[in-house]
Structure formats: structure tokens, C-alpha cells
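Q: What does the assembly look like in three dimensions?
Context provided by user:
Components: two
Sequences:
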Amino acid sequence: MREERKIFFVVIFCGLLFLPALGESTEKFPTKPIELVVPFAAGGSTDVLARLVAKFAPKYFDKPLVVINKPGGGGVTGTEGVVRSTPDGHTLYLGYGSGHDLVMPHFQKLPFDTFKDLIPVSRLSVHSVVLIIRADAPYKTMKEFVDWGKKKEQVTASVSTKAGSVDITFQAIGKTTGLKMVTVPFRGGAEAVTAIVGGQTDSGGNHPSEVISHIKAKRLIPIAVALEQRDSAIPDVPTFKELGYNVVTVGSVKGVAAPKGTPPEVIQYLSERFKKVCDDPEFVKAMKDIGQPVMYLGPTDFGKYLQAGFEEYGKLIKEFNIKLE
Amino acid sequence: MFQGLANGFGIAFSLTNLTFALVGTLLGTIVGILPGLGPAATISLLLPLSFKIGSPVTSIIMMAGIFYGAMYGGSTTSILVNIPGEAASVVTCIDGYQMALKGRAGPALGIAAIGSFIAGTIGIIGLTFVAPPLAEFALKFGPPEYFALTLLGLLMATLLGGSSIVKGLIMVVLGLLLGSVGLDPISGAIRFTWGFFMLQEGVDFVTLAMGMFGIGEILINLEKELTTELVTRKITHLWPTLKDWAESKWAILRGSFIGFFIGILPGGGAVISSLVSYAVEKKFSKHPEEFGKGAIRGVAGPESANNSAASASFIPLLTLGIPGNASIAMIFAALLIQGVQPGPFLITEHPDVFWGVVASMYVGNVMLLILNLPMVGMWVQLLRVPYAILAPIIVLFCCIGVYSIRNTVFDIWVMGIFGVIGYFFRKVGMEPGPLILAFVLGPILERSLRQALLISAGSPFIFFSRPISGALMGFLILYILVQIVITLRKPRVGEN
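A: Here is the predicted structure of the complete assembly.
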């Protein structure tokens, strides 16, 4: 009898241990701060975007958003961490649509599937690729640049990294214009900007947020944007298409994703709140100041957009026969 | 300009800003001392807090304090336990640790603090008066110039390895090989990663240094009797003597200027400046044989150089909007998020930010001197802590520090592996210093060489046709020729 009573109490006690867990499951999402994992180093353009979002989030989210940087493997490591995390919406990936999502899989096998293992939540911004030149260069327009370059043995362009969105776009520019475009990879966007500001290369490829201060200072001139439509961060700059060169990519997309298995109602909660942040006029202004356009898309449209962008890069890589030796 | 600086002091001396400058420098000193924990990780942790502070000036004053405060603290572990806190303190280990072994840890720490103060202040004076033209000069540094400068740095690194040039060269080559792990910077091909995605961006400097120096040193010390440890660490002097000061003052001044001019260059500036400073001191010394055995000038010069380099690295950020290293990039991001665009317009659009931060750096340097000098005595006492207690604490901090860089356990394993390798190097009498420095410089060397050749369409003439790289290459070739002539002319006395 005594034994049975002991077992009885143990069972009851164990049951009691589970009570808080039961309570938690009926509680509404979010139950704790939401981690925004940025798979790049702090201080970069994706990180700045994430921190701006986190700054405006308390107005709209029920729990704070916390930015966590997990750089490594060109973004693969941090993203993989999110893919392997508990799919309850408390761990999100910010940067969905970056080079390692859309470009890298065409060259190497990643430890996860960009589309099958992640659920799109919201698109926040698109970092377009813009062709920039120095203000004191002997060419001022796209046409002058191409004419000048045709007389040269080669035309150099500083890019942030090999086989990233900027590099692929610039190889496409070379093939479309008939210039012998040599991309010179640097260690990230900031170093690439330093090189073009210092006149080390003939042209530069960057995202607008990386060069906006130099454009304002009239050191650099933006020539053309490789997007379907103009970039609202630099609305005066024409697209390549407008100028008669068919170079269109999705640039580097910056969206939010959740790991596969996250409940649909959580995805809905998140995308609604991210939309509210994106509609906040103060957020829009802060983003404009740093040269990042706010380009919100909901889960379904964002998913389609990414798929199309992925295939577009695949086509370019195949068409221009771009390889990593 | 003086008006601006005066206003800046007005801002810096407000109670809030003084408090945050103190908090920043104090935090910086602490993370500088803790092995592995660096200013970049600390600033990134504090970024969200900085928005709560509200005013951009105040938050940048604090972050800047963390950054240059860490440069002060970085020398402490180099001297006491032979673990460099950051790349620019690797050189300090050579003579600093030797001084500590001879019971002169106090003077070494003291001269490092005084040198840091003088150099830091010289750096800020430069930042105040000649920032814009110098920033333009730094822009002239393209791939060919970086190649020539790094080659110079590498030459200096081979000279560091005390007794044997052959051993020094072996370590340099190993360092270059380790530096090539990860993505090929130009073609994007994957090298030596054995399938680990974590290795695609290469081995992290802190991970390697903590392993080779920190863990390696502890492993080798485990072989020694604990009692001998305490005897060899007896303390003869707590403060630098007048003789120490007389020996160091010119080294400090030379280091300050070397650090300032090389530190302006984005990327690698502080490391190369500390190397160049050490080499210059060794060359100028009447007793070069003392170097590597506890020469105080070998501590004073490089420690000064890396501090004025830290001040100078604010120049490209504040005048051009170009962040030169990880910590400065974080400050760059903090400014952006607070709606302040660093760049050529900063000084006119946000004079309060520019002058407030510059003025706070003068104040911060004085605070650091006051904070650090009394602490010398405390740190020296730390050497009395039994090694059986000290060693596990060091290992713990190394693990935390390495983990904090990328928030991954993988790096702790990598550190452990390098610790074992470092242990065997010590067993065969190979000093890890040249390896670490070659590891830092190798990737810059490779990248700049290949970038330069891409730009010149394959012609090596580019290294000689541009004025700055041409001059550097000319100096290099001349230096090597002179060395060869000296060696050949030297009468071979008593070959053994």
C-alpha cells in the first residue's frame, strides 16, 4: 500500500510539473521576446535594417524583438541555426533573399533547402544593385561609360564579394554591353566603396545604402539600377532597362522567414505586425535616410517573388556561363 | 575649429557625457583585459542599449570609450600571461611577458599605460587638426599599396622570431597557410574547409590566438612545478624607474607617430603599425640583443603605436564615412540607426557629434590613465594567485570570449585544437608570434596582390609605377640588398 501511495504522489508531482507547460500552450504567441537572427556581422546593411525594425517593433509587437548576429559561411551558418530551431515563431531569420539564398545554391549544395526549410513571413526591403562611378571620371552617363570602356583593354568594377548578387549582376552588365568587365572582389560592401571612392577601379557595384552618403557628397555618381522598376531610395536614377540594356535582377532581398513547421496563425500574426512597422511613417523616413527602400510583401507574394528571383539568377548564371574555379 | 573644439568640450563635460565616457572606458578596459572578449562584441551587445540613451553623442562617446579603452587593456594579458587580447598586442607578448618572468611586470604595465596615454592623446590631436587631408591620403591606398605595406609587415614578422631565422620562416609559412583557409577571396572557391561551413570565412583571429597563446601556454605550464612558478614571478619593481622612462620616451614618441600614420589606413593598420614600431625600436637600439629578453622599449613602442592607431582609425569614419575595422563599423551602424550619417558632411551637419566625440576622447584618455595606473599594482598581485586557480579561470574566459565572436561552440573546439598544436610548438622551441602575424597579414597580402593584378590586367608593373607602392617596394628591395651585403661582408668568426 505504502509503495502504491508513493508512486501515486510521484505521478501527481510529475503531472504538476507539466502544468505550467500546459498553461503556456494555451497562452497566445508571443510568450517571450522574439529573436531576429541576422546571419551577417553587426554593422552591415542587413544588421542596420534589423536593428531599425527592432527599434520600431515595441509599438506593434506584444514582446520585444531582439537582434542576434550569427555571421559565418556567407550567411549559411546563421540561417541553418534558424532552420534547426524550434518552429514556434520565437526564432526568425532576417535577411531572407540574400546572396546565400538566391545565388549560392546555384554553385554549391547548402545544408538546408532555401525554399523547403523556410517559410516566408514578410519582405521588408530590396537592396538593389547600382552602377556607380567617381564624380571626376571622364564619363558621366551609361553611354559615355560604355563608349569609353570599349576603347580599353578591360573595365574594372569593385564588388563586395565573388559570386554574390552584385558580382553576378556586373558580369551580366559586361555581357550585355559588350565590355570586358573585370570584377574585383573586396571583403564586403564597405571595402568595395572605399576602393571606388579612392579611384582604384573604373566603376563600382553597390547597394544604395552603402553609397548614399557619397552620392550626397557628390563624390560618386549613380548611373543605373539593375531592377525592374526604379529604386525608391534613389528615385532619380534610371534602370538599365530604361537605358536600353536588359540587366534586371532582384538584387539582394531582405525579408523575414520562419523555420518550416511554424503554425500558420503565428506567421499571420508576424506578417501583420511587420506590415504595421513598414507602414509607420517614421520608420519609412528612417529607412529613406539610410538609403534602404521599404518594400513590404505578405507571405504568399513574398514566396512567389523569391522563387522568381532565384530562377532569374539561375538563368543569368547559366546564360553567361559563370563558374567558380 | 577652436570654436568647435571648445563647444565639444562643453558637450563632453556635461555630467551625462562624463558618466558615459567613464562607463565606456571602464568597460573597454575590462573587455580589453579579458582574453577573447573584444570591443567589437561588446559594442554590438550594447547597441540596443545605445538607442535607449537617446542622444547620439552620448552613445557614441560611450562606444568610442569601449574601443580605445580596450586598446589600453589589451596589453595586460599579453604581459602577465602571454595571451594577446587582440592582433595589435601580439608583439607586446614578446618582451612584455619576458619582463613579467623577470619580475618586472609592474614597469611593463606602467610603461604600456603611460605610452598608451601619450600616444592616444597625440592621435587625438592629429584627429583634431589634420583629419580631412589625411583621410584623402588614406584613400590613395589601393590594392598595390596594401600589398607593398603588408609585404613590409611580413618581413618585419620574420625578424621577430628570436634566435633562429629558419624557425621564424617556418612559422610564417604555416601562418600564411592557415590564413588561406576559407573562401578564396577572388575566385570564391572553397579551400581547406573539410566540409565545415563554419570554416568558409576562415579561422577567426581570436580563436587562433587564444588557442596558440592562451591554451598552449597553460598546457606547457602544467608541466612545471607550481612552486617554481611563484618564485620566477617574484616582483622587484612596481613602477617604471627613471631609467625605464629614459629608455622608453623616444620609443613612445616614435610609436605614436608610426601608429598614427599607418592607423589611418582602413584594415590592418593597427597590427602593421605595432610590427613596424617593434622593428624600428630593435633597429634603432644600441642593444638589439636585449629584444626578446625583456626590453622595455619593445613594450613601449608597439603599445603606443596601437593606441594612436586606434585614435587615427576614427579619421576615415568621421571624415569619409568609411569604417576601417569591426569596432568602428559598429559605431558606424549606431550612428546610422540614430539618424546621423557619418561622412564628409558630419562635421557641418552634426558638429555636436563630431566635436563632442573628439573632445570626449581627450577626457577619456585622462580617465584611462587614472584608471589604469593604480590597477598596475592590482594586476601584479594577480600573479601571486596560485596557477592552479588562475589557469582554469583563463581557460574559462578564453572559451567565453571565443564563443562570443560568432555565438557558436564550433570555435571553442577549433581553439582547443590550436591549443594542442601551440603546446607542441612550444615543446620544439617554435614561437607562435610570427605564425599569428603571418596569419593576419597573409590574407591581406593575397587579396591585395590579386586585386592589383586584376586591375592592371596582369601586369606586375603596377606595384612600381604608383608613387606610394613604388616607394615602399623600393625601400623593401633596398633593405633586403643591404642585409645581404652585410651578411656577406661579415667575417666568419669561429663557426661552430
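Follow-up: The beta strands of chain A are 34-38, 65-69, 91-96, 118-127, 130-134, 155-159, 181-185, 203-206, 220-225, 252-259.
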